[in-house]
Every structure is written in C-alpha cells, then in structure tokens.
Amino acid sequence: MTFNKQAIRSSYVRPIDFKRGRVEMSHGGGGRAMTQLIETLFVSAFDNAMLSALNDQACFSPPTGRMVMSTDGYVISPLFFPGGDIGCLAVHGTLNDIAMAGAKPLYLSAGFILEEGFPLADLKRIVASMAAAAQAAGIQIVTGDTKVVERGKGDGIFITTTGVGSVPDGIEIAADRARPGDRVLVSGTLGDHGITILSLRENLGFHTEIESDTAALHDLVANMIAAVPAIKVLRDPTRGGLATILNEIALQSAVGIAIDEHQLPIREPVRAACEFLGFDPLYIANEGKLVAICPPEDADRLLETMRAHPLGQAAAIIGEVIEDPQCFVQMETAFGGRRIVDWLSGEQLPRIC
Amino acid sequence: MTFNKQAIRSSYVRPIDFKRGRVEMSHGGGGRAMTQLIETLFVSAFDNAMLSALNDQACFSPPTGRMVMSTDGYVISPLFFPGGDIGCLAVHGTLNDIAMAGAKPLYLSAGFILEEGFPLADLKRIVASMAAAAQAAGIQIVTGDTKVVERGKGDGIFITTTGVGSVPDGIEIAADRARPGDRVLVSGTLGDHGITILSLRENLGFHTEIESDTAALHDLVANMIAAVPAIKVLRDPTRGGLATILNEIALQSAVGIAIDEHQLPIREPVRAACEFLGFDPLYIANEGKLVAICPPEDADRLLETMRAHPLGQAAAIIGEVIEDPQCFVQMETAFGGRRIVDWLSGEQLPRIC
Amino acid sequence: MCLAIPARVEQINGDDAIVNLSGIRREISLALVENVEPGDYVIVHVGYALEKIDPAEAARTLALFAELSAQDSAGEPSP
Amino acid sequence: MCLAIPARVEQINGDDAIVNLSGIRREISLALVENVEPGDYVIVHVGYALEKIDPAEAARTLALFAELSAQDSAGEPSP
Amino acid sequence: MKYVDEFRDGALAKIIAANIARAADPRRQYHFMEFCGGHTHAISRYGVTDLLPDNVHMIHGPGCPVCVLPIGRIENAIQLAQTPDVILCTYGDMLRVPASHGMSLLKTKAAGADIRMVYSSLDALRIAGENPHKEVVFLAIGFETTTPPTAVAILQAQALGLANFSVFCNHVLTPSAISHILQSPEIRTLGRIRLDGFIGPAHVSTIIGSQPYEYFSEEFQKPVVIAGFEPLDVMQAILMLIQQINARRAEVENEFTRAVSRHGNRKAQQLVAQVFELRRTFEWRGLGWVPYSALQIKTTFADFDAEKRFKIAPLAIPDNKACECGAILRGVKHPRDCKIFGTACTPDNPIGSCMVSSEGACAAYYRYGRFTESRSTTTQQ
Amino acid sequence: MKYVDEFRDGALAKIIAANIARAADPRRQYHFMEFCGGHTHAISRYGVTDLLPDNVHMIHGPGCPVCVLPIGRIENAIQLAQTPDVILCTYGDMLRVPASHGMSLLKTKAAGADIRMVYSSLDALRIAGENPHKEVVFLAIGFETTTPPTAVAILQAQALGLANFSVFCNHVLTPSAISHILQSPEIRTLGRIRLDGFIGPAHVSTIIGSQPYEYFSEEFQKPVVIAGFEPLDVMQAILMLIQQINARRAEVENEFTRAVSRHGNRKAQQLVAQVFELRRTFEWRGLGWVPYSALQIKTTFADFDAEKRFKIAPLAIPDNKACECGAILRGVKHPRDCKIFGTACTPDNPIGSCMVSSEGACAAYYRYGRFTESRSTTTQQ
Ligand code: SF4
Ligand code: SF4
Ligand SMILES: [Mg+2]
Ligand SMILES: [Mg+2]
Ligand SMILES: [Mg+2]
Ligand SMILES: [Mg+2]
Ligand SMILES: [Mg+2]
Ligand SMILES: [Mg+2]
Ligand SMILES: [Mg+2]
Ligand SMILES: [Mg+2]
Ligand SMILES: [Mg+2]
Ligand SMILES: [Mg+2]
C-alpha cells in the first residue's frame, strides 16, 4: 500500500489565502476548512510532535517536583503595538504566571476565539509571534482550540493560554509568605506596557516612543532562585499595576508594605503621560516586570542577581514589609510626605479634574 | 495583633448585586471590584484550597502515569438550553477531551471573557453550573482568569477551560491506532446536542422536546478501559459530528472506515429536524457521546460494558475499520446502497434545495 | 432541489398552522393551499405548505413498489 | 480639579499645535490663547492651552520657596 | 416520518431493483437525466446507483437554482449587500456560491456586510419590520416551488405598507431550461449526447402540474416521469422510463401522484401571476441566455422591486475559464473532464457553480464519484 | 517635566515647612479651605499634611465639578443616553458619578447605551462628523477652566454646520460657590465653623484672573491666596495665609503668578461671553440652589442646546438620605460623621458625590484618612 497522507491532503485542498483571506465561520466549524487552518497554520508554526498528533489533547511525562498550572485570557486592543503583539503577550503572560511560582514552564495550551472577518494575515502574524516567543522561552505549545464567532460578537481575536510547569522541591513561593522586615524589589521600570497601549487609543490622542515591556521572565526567575532560594513572594504587576499586587500581597500575607517613591523606577514619558491623563503610574500595567519579596539579608544579593540579567537591569529595592493589621500599602513620597497606596476603584479613566 | 482578613474585606466592600447587577469594565480591571467578584463568586463556587490561595497559579503534586492536557473554548449561543448551559458544557467538554486519552481528569483551569453589561445573575448561574459539574465529576477548578471586554466586542460570555489528567501506564489510546478489522462503537444517540441548540435559534423557528446530551464521560471511559484495556481510539464527536471524527481517525490511522446506517442510534426528532433543514445528522454535534475503536474480539465485551453505564445505554457497534489508501469513510445505507461520508465543507447551512 | 418534506398539520389559525414532523413542530403558512384541515399531511417548503398529500395515492404508489413487475427485458411482453 | 499640565509647544499650525511633555506629544488647540510661539510653555487642559507660563515669574516663585522666612510666629515682626 | 420512511424502505428497494434488472435490456444503454438536484441528492445519499444495472446511466441536470444563477447576478447581490444601510436576506444555499475573485456572500458578510440567512421569505419581512431605518432586500432565488412564497411576501409587504422592503428577483422556470437542453445542438442535431428520458421534478410539479411536460414528450419524443424525491420514487421512475423506452413510448407519466396533479396548485399559480411576469430572456450559469426562462416583478409592484429601487445594472461576468460547468450542466462533459476539478476547485473552495451545492454535479462526483472510482480501482488491483 | 518637577522638590518642601512651623502661632488653630479638588489631590498625593503643624487644618471644599452636579442632571444625562440614536459624549470623570438607584453613566453604558468617553470637546465634534445619522450630545461639565473649550466646540459646530451636535451644558461658576459657602449661616452668623482663609483655584484663575476674589476678601474679611496645584505651591499658599492672618490682613494674594494675572485670559472670557449667559439659579449637589452660579447656552445658539433640542425637563431628585455630602462640602461635617461611610458607600460603590472623584472629601478620607487614623491608633497602643 503506497500511502501518503500528504498527497491526499494536498491534492484535494486549495491553499489558504493568508494574504487577503479572512476568517470565516467555517474555520471554526469542525470541517475540512478548520482542519486545514489548524494544520497549515498552528501545527506548522508551533511545530512539535504532540500538536502534530492532532489528538484533542497532549500527552507527556509528568515532571519532578510539584506542578503548577495557570491560565490567562488576552483581549488587548490594539493587537499589534510597539514592543509586541497579542501573540507574544499570550505566551509571556501565562509563562510569567507560571514563573511567579518559582516554576520552570513546560507546556502551553492555546485557545483562540476568532471573529468572523478577521484578516488571516493578522492571524498568521500573531501565530508566528507566539511561536517565536515560545521558542525563545524554550517551551512548547502542545494543544489548542479554535472557535469562530459571528462578526460583531468578538473583537478580532481573543487568546486564552494555559501553562503547566514544575517547581523544584524546596522552593516555596506564594503571596502569603511576606513577613515584616522582608524587602520588596521590582525588576525594572513601571508602566511601560500600559502607557504604550493607552497611547494607541485613538481617543486619547497622544504619542510616545515608549514600547511595551512584554517579556518572558522565567529565566530571570531561575537566576534569582539560584542566587536566593529563600525568595518568598514573586508576582508580575500586570493589570492594576504595582499598587494592586502590593495590596494583594499585603492582604494575603496579612502585613503592611511600605515603599519609597524615590526608589521606584519610572520612565519620564510614563510619568508625563500619567500627568496628561490624570493617571497614577503605580496602577499602570506591566508585562515584563516582577515584584520579589525576600528576607532582608538576601536583598542585596538578589538585587545584584537581577541587575545582572538583561530583564532586570533597572531593578531596585523599593520598600519593605511591615506589621500592619489593616494591611495598608503606604508610600513615602518623594516630596517627603506619606500616603496610602490603595486598591484601584474601578478602572482608571482619563480625568479632567 | 487581632487580625481578620474577612473583617477588612467585609467592612469596606458593599456586596455585589447578583440580582440586577451587570458586568462592568471594572470587573476585569484588576482592582477591588475584580477581586471582589473573584472572591465572592468564583472562589466560593469552586471552593478549593488552591483557588482560595488567590495566587496567579495553582500548585499540585504531579500524578503517576503520563499526563495529558487539553483546552477548549466555549462560545455557544444561547447560553442556557434544555439539558445544560455553557457552564457545565465548559466543564464536560474539556473533561471529555482528557478522558478521550483514557486519562483520569484531575484539575481544570477556567478563563472567562465577559462582555460589559452581561447580567451578573446569568454569570452566577453559569458559575454554579460549572461548580456542580466539576463536583459531580470529582475534579477541581484550581485556577482561573477573568477579562471584561467592552459592550459589542463580545457575546455575553466566552469560557475557555483547560484540563490536566493522568493516564495509567499501559493504556495507549490515540487516533492513529485504528487498524483494519477493528470495530467502531458509539456510546449513544447522535445529534441531540446540535439539534437542541439549532431549535433555539430564532431564525430557524422550530421546536422540539430534545435535550442536549452534555455529560462527563470519564466515568464511562474508566469502566470501558477496565473492561477492555486494549481500546485503541476514543474520541468525542463534538463539532462536525460523527462524520468529522471518523474522517479524522481514518486520516490519522491511514485506514478506511465502513459504517452501517442501520446501526446508527439516531432519535426520530433529530432525523426530522435534519429533514426540515437539509442537514445530515452525521455532522451534528454531540456533547456527551464518544466513539471507541477496539480489536474485533473485544467489541462485544466493550459494548456490554458501555450499555451497563447510564451514559452508554444506547451504545452500538456501528462499523469496522478497513484498509483504504484513500482513507474514505463509507456507509452502507439503510436503503441498501453505499456512500461516502465525507468531510464537512464549510459549516452546515439550512438549505432550500 | 426544492427541499420539502411532508408533515402533519396540528393546528390551524387562519393562514398560519403548526405542523409536526416526528416531534419537531414548526409554524408554517397555508397561504398557498386550500381546504387543509388538522390531521392532513402537507408538503412543507421554506415555511409554506405547497400541497396536500393524497393518502390514497400514496398507498397506491407504495403498493406499486411492492409488485414484482411482470415485464421482461427488451420491451417485449413476457410470454 | 481642572487637571492641567505645562507642556512645551513644538509646532504651530494656525490654532493647532503639538506640545511635548517629557517625550509625550499631543495635538492641542491654541484657540484660547494669543501670541504663542514654539518653545513657549502653555498650560494644557482638555486638549486646549489655557495660558502661557511666564518663565520669569516661575523663577521668582521658586526663589521665594527657597527663602527661609524671617517672620516669626504670632503675627509680630521678629525683633 | 410518515410519507417519508415508507419511501426509503430497503426491502421495497430490492423489489424495484429486481424489476429494473429484469426490465433493462442488456443489449442497450439507458441514459436518463434527472433534472432536479433533489433527485441527484437522493441517488447519492442512498447509494441508488449501487442498485442499478451497469447499463443504466444517470446524468445530473441543471436543477439547482443556486447553481444556475449567473455570476453577474451574484455580484449584483454582493454590491447590494455592501450598500450602506442595506440588510440583504437570503436562503442559506446562496451564501457560499462563488462569484468572481473568490468572493461569495459569505465572504462579503465576513468582510462586514449585513447579510442574514433566512429560512422563509416571511423572515425577511419580519426583519424589515424590525429595522425601519434600514433597507431590507430579499435576494429571491428558486424554481416554481420557491416563487409563490416570494409572491406572498410581496403581497404582505404591500398590505403592511412596508416601505423598506424589496425583492431582488431571480426566480427561474423549469420547463424553459429543459427545452433549452433538449434544443442544444449536441443533443438535437448532432446526437452526440444520448438522452433517452427525463425524471421530472417533484416539488416544482406540485405547483405547475404535469401538463407543462407534455410538450417535451411530444415535441422531442422523450419520455418524462415525474417522481418524488425519495429513493424508491426515483427507482420506480427509472423503471417506468425503461418501460416506456422498451415500449417505444414517449409520454409524461406521474409517479408522484400523492402530491402532483395534471394542473398543479392553481392558488399558487394565481398568486405568482398576480405579482410576476415573464422576462424576455435571462442568463443561466452554464446554459447562457435562455428566452422566457425567468420571472420579474410586475410594474404594479415596482416599489418592491430591488432592481428598480437600487437601479441594479446588468453585469456580464464570464465564468472562470477553466470551469466546464456549462458543458456539464448540459450533460456534454463530465466533472473529470475539468482540469481544476479536485485541485483548485473543491467543495471548500468552489470555483464553479456545480461544486457549490451538494447537489451540483461536480460536488456530487467529488463526494461520491471519487469513492466509486477508487473502489473499482481497488477491486481491479 | 519643566515647571512641574521643580514645584515638587522635597528639599524646598522642607524649607517651606520650616517657614510654616515658624510662622504658625502655637496658641491658635488655623482652618483653611482649599476650594479646589486639585489642591486636595496634591495634599493627599504628596502627603502634604505630614509637613504641616498640628494646628493647621485643611478643609476640602466643593471644588470638583463632578461632585457638585446634582442627581437630577445626571438622571437627565442617563435618559438622554438611553434615547434611541443618541450618542452621549463626556469626560471620563462623569462616568462613575452615582445617580439614584445605584445607576451611573457607566452602568447605563454597560446596559447598552452608546456613551463615549472623550478627552476633549473637539473629540465630541469629530464623533458627530463621523455619525451623521446619530444625534451626538456632549455632556459638558466643569468650572471656568473647562467652559471655554465647550464654547469653542459650539462655535466650530456652527461654522461646520453640524446639525447633529448639541451640548448639555452644566458649566458652573466658582466665585458664586465660594460666596454661597461664606454666606451660609453656620459660617457667617452662627460662627460654628472656623474658616480663616481660602486657597484659591489655580487653573480656574488663569481664565478669570485674581480680581473676582477681591470681593470676598473685602466683604467677608477672609484672606485668599491663589495657588498652583503642585505641592510646593500649596505649602507656600498656606504659609502666605498664615502670614496674612497673623498680620490680620484679608487680601487676595497670588502665589501662581507664573500663569495667573489680575484680569485673566480675556480671549477665553470673550469666547465664553459670546456663547453663554448666566442662569438665574442652578442646583449644586450638596449646596442646593445657588443664584447666578452657572451658565446656559445663549438663545442665539439654541440649535446646539441639548436642553432645548431634547426638551430636557428639570428633575428634582434628593440625595440618598444617609449621605452627608451637603454638610461635608460646606465644611460643616466630616466624612466620619456619615453613617454609611466605608460600608455602603465606598469608592467602588459610591452613594454620594464626595465618594466619586478621588478629590471628593469622602474618597480622600477613605484613602488617606483611614490610614492616618490607623497610624495614630497603632502609635498610641
Ligand atoms: S470542478 Fe469546479 S471549475 Fe471544474 S467544472 Fe466543476 S465546478 Fe467548474
Ligand atoms: S460617605 Fe458616601 S454617603 Fe456618606 S457623605 Fe460621603 S459620599 Fe455621602
Ligand atoms: Mg493566570
Ligand atoms: Mg497573568
Ligand atoms: Mg500574574
Ligand atoms: Mg477543541
Ligand atoms: Mg467587533
Ligand atoms: Mg480540546
Ligand atoms: Mg473538545
Ligand atoms: Mg489572570
Ligand atoms: Mg455583542
Ligand atoms: Mg474532542
């Protein structure tokens, strides 16, 4: 029997037009059009044996240590922005949530919700960006799913990625482990991603050279853990920014946190954009930064390790954990006063007053 | 220090109005409103220690055997339908993809993409349904994510779930293992889910008493594997129906498949609805059925095992795997002829001719 | 072409009717047919009844199918 | 109230101008002000320049901040 | 399903198959055209050919209203759909039909046009009522079966005073198409194509009756048997055609007496006559311009005529050069004669109209023919 | 950021703090109202109170145009937004302001209304141009600072002949509000509230100049110091007020000379005078009806006046009974006096206007006051 799967496929299927084509309902309908899209786009871009098997699930050996699992949906607009796009973001974001447990990310799944009419050229570009991000991070996208919704019932593309990874035994990182006296560090400048995205919102109409900081942090984390296995908390200040995650940590650890405005690495244009809009950079999203909390005696070593990594060059010790039954996050202002850094109420909206 | 997290939360947060409230952008904004939604809705409904830890990831011990991982997005309309809703569907669907590897499902993640304005009462109902489905299936939803998109950029609610599970050593189930002579079985009536959903589309305007068959199949699968460890292929005929997955299996295993129309369990109203619309029941979606392929000598035992389970009462042996370099799926019609059961071209659209 | 299916008329309300096909109910229009009564079978196309089914003729046709033809090949009557 | 911020005018085109604030550029309207030239600083509110900044006055005010006051408490001049 | 399942009975099929086998003269070949896609569909879906002797050949006719709509009219519809504030409503069948440059209404919808699939002409009326600020155009297609519902919709729109509803009328007439095929030189003069008889439409005939076919049997001396769309109906009609030929008869016979009379549905005919009138000529994809083969809206209903309301200009757009649909529809060529069959042209990406509907000759051959041929190849090896 | 960072310098802050400490007479208490939310914001954000002696007390005034808009006007806006084919445009500040029954424009938007956040009045004009079939209403709010941009938009709409653009005008006047507070019996007659001086608005004053405040200092014998919105400006203004009081002076002084002159921006004033005229009276949330405290669109621009175009009827809707905003805005009560502060009323679910804007007295106290008090409690234990 001279059998050739490829021959069967290619002889009966016209290539997808990735230049001018658009997503149609049939691309999610479960038929040949969907299979073709999956095979020619996803399988070929993500290129690994588990995905190529075209089963409805991936199968792999369990790692050593404990496992972690995390999921995030990506709904960003615009889809392409200076410094990245929704594709690499969807890889970095979930990978970072895995890394924030001190884990080594292993595998990702990717679920796509496409809007009818979405340009296939954009889809291809996004998928290529995901593939590149996954490869750079040394992980595989092993299973996935594609759904198509009618025009007007989506927003081009939504991606939900889920990651699994493994934490070496002995590493215990969680948001409830901060204790008074511990030091708080950030890995770099704050607000770059959020301000980049805001600058592209037509109705805000401002321009900047800032780029999104989207990046995979697991390599930085690996270095940090190697240097300071006693790291207690790691978290990436994404939605809601630094202020939000410090409040989360304070509440989960039942402590207060005191930071020093002088030490916060914030770029000038980020501060300036915030002044225009009435925003506070502490609440602006980051996609390639982390906050670490460690015992005081390890802080300098941790800082040094972070600064030695390309993604931690602007790292800084920004404050310390204190006792506080009210779990406030407070800040010594550069001006010399002191204020509370509260939870965000609702989303930040541009203000006139 | 008399510290009480609950006191801090409750004294400063007004309860969410789950009766008349609606999803607002702030519910996805990363601030207090989002945390409140997560704590009072998701964490309390899914109720498990990993989720309650409110970390950005769940951490658990790796299972024995090999691991499987699967993801699916759920974009169904309407959200509530006879027999189920998008919530239990999102649990059953992913769980079934895990089970189709012969695996025991362990943990689920859930990513929500909510449209601004979506009634919180509906969200609560959906989450309760997910929680009930997860509990009935004996698995935990251990991590999640919530995004809110602007009104007009979504369709109420999309859910993407990802599951992990473990396969006992020695079990090898995959879509490329079908061999000529193997028998093909289905676990029950075909097309119930798809016809239920179609009947609710206002523009098709027909009514039926049929209910969706949405169900978690892992328990049935466990019984099947216990009885016939030599099962070679398992797959759930969801989007694209029986025809699509038989074609997928044929192509992946490089075989042909011959089925017998006489043996196909299809309810009368499903056939009737298809006649009205010009559809073919072989292409209609199921959400609580599976197709199994096993060696011929095991077929009767497998059938018996399936029929003994509540979800397999209408199980049937519907055909066998044959040699065919063209990988055709063919059917002996009840009429006495023979036809090919091809891939679906595009989605099925109601026809007048 | 012209997908149409016989269904039983259950209820009539002017030109509107409900038909039932093995448990599937839908509203159709009787604007194209006359003298239809509940219990009649009509052929339904794009939501309209095209024509009534004549039960006697249907039975006759079915009976015809069951007859083993007496005719031989080549157009000659068999002996 | 009345969030407004000083920014440097870079380009002027009739009533439209581009201002720069530490690398952030945005288009604003000069419809409310007169005699603005590139290089001037204007106070920007809801996309409009409200007024020019007077550099000499700004310097004077800053100098004032730096002066240690000679005045004592209780409203009496110090001896 | 009463009046359905009885006509799909496998046991009866064996009897009719035996009758056919006995009736068919092994020394001759029988070539029958089933004009209607409905018959084509039944033949494919139930595997009817498996029950026929090798010397009985079925030719798929042009009987799919979707397949015969010329590209120019689809292009018109696409342009209409792209007009601001227009909602274009049509049956699901129309959505995938390819126009030029790989476009279709489905792709036009994906690109942003407001195109709605309806199940009935009345749904289009409802949409017009719900969207008073939009122009709702119903893209009407179909043979005599589907025309009366369009007439009802126009009359109702008039009664309701719906000012934002109109119909882009593409209704065509079956008898003209059959005449046209029979008059084609390949069949009539050259005799290059064998066409020994016709299976006549089932549901079209419920409306027009059996009488209009009498002209063909007389003028062209070809037997016609009107048959239902169930597989037993088709087999019985084949038997009846063989019997006529064997007996050298050329008559109109009616197998579908349970729904078709000689005069058809007079009420429906009257409604059609009230709203529509003959077009002098109309283009059929594959057949070219066929005189008096289509309907247009009468000037008394001009307000509801989208062609007038939107000043739709006739567009002459040739089919893809490689496409052999024209010859295939007339029975002159076979799908396998087309160079791009199964490669550039597939059901997922149809180039020509015969690949669009599952009743189209090329789609049917793609689905079933490849299989049959591969079976015989395998068997031979 | 030039003209910004210099005015936030911590080293200079220490000098001014030392000057204040020296100037403040330990035997007396100083009560100053900063009228503007901008000053409130600077005080909170930079922790200015930490640098003030204990006997200098800051009272937050009603200077947030969002907080003073009465519920009736918000309800009007909500109803407008729910009108079919209306697009309501407004500044981000307005979206969260609570009306009755827990509604707000944000919730109205979530429930389906087309409400767009704009950064500038010109964005609303652009939206009107892009949506010729919709009615675009700009919900205009703000003090004298924000009024001239609205005037420009109306003049431009007239020049462009934009027939689908109108303004729902809610512009209010600062001096009237200050008078009203000073005239309240608690302050003027009863003397129950100590109010020793005012910090005058920064950006409002760039438009109206310092002259309008001269009436207060003369009539009520209260010193006024106009100050910039940076923290050093505020501290310097506090110092200047202390010095005036110590010297028993009651004058208008100008700390914000880099942008404010005595006569203000005459061009802006002219544009406002061209388009707007005084209302006889206007309701302020918390203050009640204040005579001649707001502007309306002149009848010559009636085409652009949404109140006329949509016949907006005045709605008198009382504030939530528990809410003490009225007293708080006048400096008579403190947020902690409100029974539902921090429980039913929080920044996430504000009941009263003082909880909405981060400049509102209740929001500021929720964020910063709780903290300060908890600190002192902790310290005491
Ligand atoms: S295969 Fe396609 S292009 Fe060729 S004749 Fe058929 S429809 Fe036309
Ligand atoms: S806490 Fe809320 S209800 Fe109470 S006074 Fe303040 S704003 Fe009004
Ligand atoms: Mg996550
Ligand atoms: Mg994340
Ligand atoms: Mg995170
Ligand atoms: Mg899937
Ligand atoms: Mg959209
Ligand atoms: Mg899956
Ligand atoms: Mg699945
Ligand atoms: Mg998340
Ligand atoms: Mg929507
Ligand atoms: Mg599956």
From TrEMBL, chains A, B:
Residues 56-167 form the PurM-like N-terminal domain. It comes from the Bacteria. Residues 179-330 form the PurM-like C-terminal domain. GO terms for biological process: protein maturation. Belongs to the HypE family. This is Hydrogenase expression/formation protein HypE. It comes from Nitrosomonas halophila.
TrEMBL record, chains C, D:
Pfam families: HupF_HypC (PF01455). InterPro entries: Hydgase_assmbl_chp_CS (IPR019812), Hydrogenase_HupF/HypC (IPR001109). GO terms for molecular function: carbon dioxide binding; iron ion binding. GO terms for biological process: protein maturation. Belongs to the HupF/HypC family. This is Hydrogenase expression/formation protein HypC.
Automatic annotation (TrEMBL), chains E, F:
InterPro entries: Hyd_form_HypD, HypD_1, HypD_2_sf. Pfam families: HypD (PF01924). One of its GO terms (molecular function) is 4 iron, 4 sulfur cluster binding. It comes from the Bacteria. Transmembrane segments: none annotated. Residues 235-262 form a coiled coil. Gene3D superfamilies: 6.10.20.100, HypD, alpha/beta domain 2. GO terms for biological process: protein maturation. The keyword Coiled coil applies. Keywords: Coiled coil, Iron, Metal-binding. Belongs to the HypD family. This is Hydrogenase maturation factor.
